[in-house]
């Protein structure tokens, strides 16, 4: 009988890069051949309990492009085959284990319920295989933060930021390992699914989009090259980050960060290089400040677990929420009585993107003005956003809905916001066109 080849496996999920990837680094330090697996899990393209598909066409297309680029980079740079499946991981891994002998599976540590459940099921089918999990999505690594446990993370961002900034040295990026011998490449015939195979509609990019970019690690590198070095826009980031139109009012790195095709560490060290070679100012610091916010929501999720998905949020607040289908449809369609909200909702529907300023306003309007169940709004943005990150999305929605980490429990004056951030009504004109009486 033919003896099965022994392999270590890298199971990719939200760490879709080759540079600065702890799982790759650890797997290649072992003496066994390495192969990689990615699953387009059918559950990710089904409707959630709120009636929206977990991943809609914009993020799905970005993900397809990202996985294509990952497959290319793994093969060209490391001689590692990426085996791609449109199937459940708990079905894929047992079948693969009939063909190959798995020693260890290396993967980025995920802790939210759905991801943990899938991993538990895979582990159940492969009891002999060792799972090597690594926290690899942070700027401040969990082993380095000045708190004895996640339960000690403060409920106010500024307290966390100041203490972490003072105590933590950001780790250098992980090195790209030497490629393994080419004979360890394996034949694999599964194709990356197209949108239609995922049950989604094909689309043309809208010319008005503020996010005209492709998915993948190489596209992320091109974006850094453009935003940091070709245009030096980074030096103006703090002044322009509340913009609404065009690709360069903010870094737009969020989508690559969300699926892990670039690491927070890499961005941090690129900022430090920019500060040495070009300029160090409030804007360069502010990009790091926003990366720390991203970390903070991850730590809040680690501390509070499933509370981030519950109606009362992490505060267990018993507020009077409503669920009105007509109000929801008007909000989604951009047919409310607030033009600024409408413009933002039309933008996300047409492009899968919305500015940070827009997100805060549509969230505040939905939860504080319309008094609708904030989780429905969070679930809609989860579906539509090209840069959806579970911790940032649900953390921000709690924050702006009065059930999260906002010590002041603010409510936005939408019309004042529109006048401040769109004084010439260019944004409204772009997305609402010739509609009369914008105010």
From TrEMBL:
<dbReference type="GO" id="GO:0000719">
    <property type="term" value="P:photoreactive repair"/>
</dbReference>
<dbReference type="InterPro" id="IPR014133">
    <property type="entry name" value="Cry_DASH"/>
</dbReference>
<keyword id="KW-0285">Flavoprotein</keyword>
<keyword id="KW-0157">Chromophore</keyword>
<dbReference type="Pfam" id="PF00875">
    <property type="entry name" value="DNA_photolyase"/>
</dbReference>
<feature type="binding site">
    <location>
        <begin position="387"/>
        <end position="389"/>
    </location>
    <ligand>
        <name>FAD</name>
    </ligand>
</feature>
<feature type="site" description="Electron transfer via tryptophanyl radical">
    <location>
        <position position="397"/>
    </location>
</feature>
<keyword id="KW-0456">Lyase</keyword>
<dbReference type="InterPro" id="IPR036155">
    <property type="entry name" value="Crypto/Photolyase_N_sf"/>
</dbReference>
<keyword id="KW-0274">FAD</keyword>
<dbReference type="InterPro" id="IPR036134">
    <property type="entry name" value="Crypto/Photolyase_FAD-like_sf"/>
</dbReference>
<dbReference type="Pfam" id="PF03441">
    <property type="entry name" value="FAD_binding_7"/>
</dbReference>
<feature type="site" description="Electron transfer via tryptophanyl radical">
    <location>
        <position position="374"/>
    </location>
</feature>
<dbReference type="InterPro" id="IPR005101">
    <property type="entry name" value="Cryptochr/Photolyase_FAD-bd"/>
</dbReference>
<protein>
    <recommendedName>
        <fullName>Cryptochrome DASH</fullName>
    </recommendedName>
</protein>
<dbReference type="GO" id="GO:0003677">
    <property type="term" value="F:DNA binding"/>
</dbReference>
<dbReference type="GO" id="GO:0071949">
    <property type="term" value="F:FAD binding"/>
</dbReference>
<feature type="domain" description="Photolyase/cryptochrome alpha/beta">
    <location>
        <begin position="6"/>
        <end position="139"/>
    </location>
</feature>
<feature type="binding site">
    <location>
        <position position="237"/>
    </location>
    <ligand>
        <name>FAD</name>
    </ligand>
</feature>
<comment type="function">
    <text>May have a photoreceptor function.</text>
</comment>
<dbReference type="GO" id="GO:0003904">
    <property type="term" value="F:deoxyribodipyrimidine photo-lyase activity"/>
</dbReference>
<dbReference type="InterPro" id="IPR002081">
    <property type="entry name" value="Cryptochrome/DNA_photolyase_1"/>
</dbReference>
<comment type="similarity">
    <text>Belongs to the DNA photolyase class-1 family.</text>
</comment>
<feature type="binding site">
    <location>
        <begin position="250"/>
        <end position="254"/>
    </location>
    <ligand>
        <name>FAD</name>
    </ligand>
</feature>
<dbReference type="InterPro" id="IPR006050">
    <property type="entry name" value="DNA_photolyase_N"/>
</dbReference>
<feature type="site" description="Electron transfer via tryptophanyl radical">
    <location>
        <position position="321"/>
    </location>
</feature>
<dbReference type="InterPro" id="IPR014729">
    <property type="entry name" value="Rossmann-like_a/b/a_fold"/>
</dbReference>
């Amino acid at each position: 009988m033919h003896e099965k080849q022994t392999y270590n496996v890298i199971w990719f999920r939200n760490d879709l890069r080759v540079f600065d990837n702890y799982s790759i680094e650890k797997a290649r330090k072992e003496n066994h051949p390495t192969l990689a697996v990615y699953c387009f899990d059918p559950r990710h393209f089904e409707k959630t309990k709120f009636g929206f598909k977990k991943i809609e066409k914009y993020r799905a297309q970005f993900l397809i492009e990202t996985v294509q680029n990952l497959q290319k980079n793994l093969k060209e740079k490391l001689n590692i085959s990426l085996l791609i499946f449109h199937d459940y991981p708990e079905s894929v891994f047992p079948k693969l284990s009939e063909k190959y002998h798995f020693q260890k599976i290396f993967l980025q540590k995920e802790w939210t319920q759905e991801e943990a459940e899938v991993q538990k099921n895979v582990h159940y089918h492969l009891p002999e295989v060792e799972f090597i999990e690594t926290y690899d999505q942070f700027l401040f690594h969990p082993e380095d933060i000045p708190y004895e446990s996640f339960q000690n993370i403060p409920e106010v961002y500024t307290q966390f930021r100041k203490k972490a900034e003072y105590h933590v040295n950001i780790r250098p990026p992980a090195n790209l390992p030497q490629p393994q011998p080419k004979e360890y490449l394996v034949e694999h015939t599964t194709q990356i699914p197209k949108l239609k195979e995922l049950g989604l509609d094909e689309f043309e990019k809208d010319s008005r989009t503020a996010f005209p970019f492709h998915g993948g690690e190489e596209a992320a590198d091109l974006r850094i090259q453009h935003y940091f070095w070709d245009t030096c826009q980074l030096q103006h980031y703090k002044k322009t980050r509340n913009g609404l139109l065009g690709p360069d009012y903010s870094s737009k790195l969020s989508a690559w960060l969300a699926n892990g095709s670039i690491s927070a560490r890499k961005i941090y060290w690129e900022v430090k290089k920019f500060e040495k070679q070009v300029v160090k100012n409030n804007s360069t610091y502010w990009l790091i400040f926003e990366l720390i916010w991203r970390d903070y929501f991850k730590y809040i999720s680690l501390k509070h677990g499933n509370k981030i998905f519950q109606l009362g949020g992490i505060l267990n607040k018993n507020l009077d929420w409503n669920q009105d289908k007509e109000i929801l449809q008007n909000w989604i369609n951009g047919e409310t009585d607030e033009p600024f909200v409408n413009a933002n909702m039309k933008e996300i529907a047409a492009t899968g993107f919305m500015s940070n300023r827009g997100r805060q306003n549509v969230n505040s309007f939905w939860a504080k003005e319309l008094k609708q169940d904030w989780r429905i709004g969070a679930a809609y943005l989860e579906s539509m956003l090209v840069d959806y990150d579970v911790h940032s999305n649900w953390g921000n929605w709690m924050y702006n809905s009065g059930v999260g980490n906002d010590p002041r429990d603010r409510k936005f004056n939408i019309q004042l916001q529109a006048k401040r951030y769109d004084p010439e009504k260019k944004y409204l004109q772009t997305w609402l066109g010739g509609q009369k009486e914008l105010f």
